[in-house]
Amino acid sequence: MLSANASKNRILDLLTFSFFPIALILLWFLSTKFGWVKASIIPAPKTVKESLSYLLEKNIFVEDALCSLSRILKGFALGASVGIVLGVLVGMLPVVDNLTKVFIALFRPVPIIALIPLFILWLGIGEESKVMVIALGTFWALLINTIDGIKGVDKKLIELGINLGKSKKEIVKSIVFPAAFPSIYTGIRIGITSSIGFVITAEMIAASAGVGYRIMYARNMAMPGILFVGIIEIGLFGLVVDLLVLKLQKYLFRYR
Q1: What is the CB neighbour count within 10 angstroms for residue 150?
Q2: pTM listed for this prediction
Q3: What string of DSSP letters covers 205-247?
Q4: What is the arithmetic mean of pLDDT over 130-144?
Q5: Burial of 91 (0-12, 13-18, 19+ CB in 10 A)
Q6: Measured distance CA(191)–CA(80) in Å, rounded
Q7: Which residues contact 251 (CB under 8 A, 6 or more apart)?
Q8: Residues 240-252: tens digit of each pLDDT
C-alpha cells in the first residue's frame, strides 16, 4: 500500500514539475504556427531546433557551454572562499565587524554590471575580468549569509564550549561552523545560481566565446534561432545547477 502511494506521489510530482515547461512549449508552438507573434521576434520551435543542430554539428554549443562553465567555477571558487573566510572573521570578531561595516554598506548596493567596465580597464578583456565579475557577485552572497549564520549561533552553545575548556579553534570548528552551515549553504546556492547571470552579462559585454557572447553575436547578426538557443542553454544551466545543489542539500542536511 505504501509503495503504491509512493508511486502515485512520484507521478504527481513529475506531472506538476513538468506542467509549466510543457504548457510554455505548447503556447510557443501555437503562437508561431498561427502567427500570433512575428517570427523576427519569437522564432518557431523548428527554427530553434535547426539552429541547435547547426551549433551541435559545429561543436559550438558544447564549446560555449564549457567556456562559460569554466569561468563560473573559477569565479565561484574564488568568491566563495574569500566570502566565507571574511564572513567568519566578521561574525566572530567585533573589531573586524566594525572595520568592515562601512565597506559593506558602501559597496554592497553597487550593481555588478556597473563594475564590469572597471574590471576590463584594470584586467583587460581576457579571462581575469570575467572571473572577477563572478567572484565579486558570489562573494557578497557568501559574505552576508556567513555573517548572519555566525551571528545567529546560540550563545549558550558557545558558553557551554568555553565551560568545557574548548579552545577558540575547537569552538569554531565543532560548534559555530556546524550551526552556521545551513545559512552558509543558502549563500552557496544563491551564489552559484547568480554566477550564471554574472558570467552571461560579462560575456555579452566583452568576450570572444561563451554563451553570453553567442547571444550577443546572434542579436547583432539578426539570428533569433541561435539567440533563443542561448537563452534556453542558460535556463538549462540554472535548472541543472539548482537541482544538483538541492540534491546535495538533502544529503548534507539529512540529519535535520
Answers
A1: 22
A2: 0.80
A3: HS-SSSHHHHHHHHHHTT-HHHHHHHHHHHHHHHHHHHHHHHH
A4: 89
A5: buried
A6: 8
A7: none
A8: 888 888 888 887 7
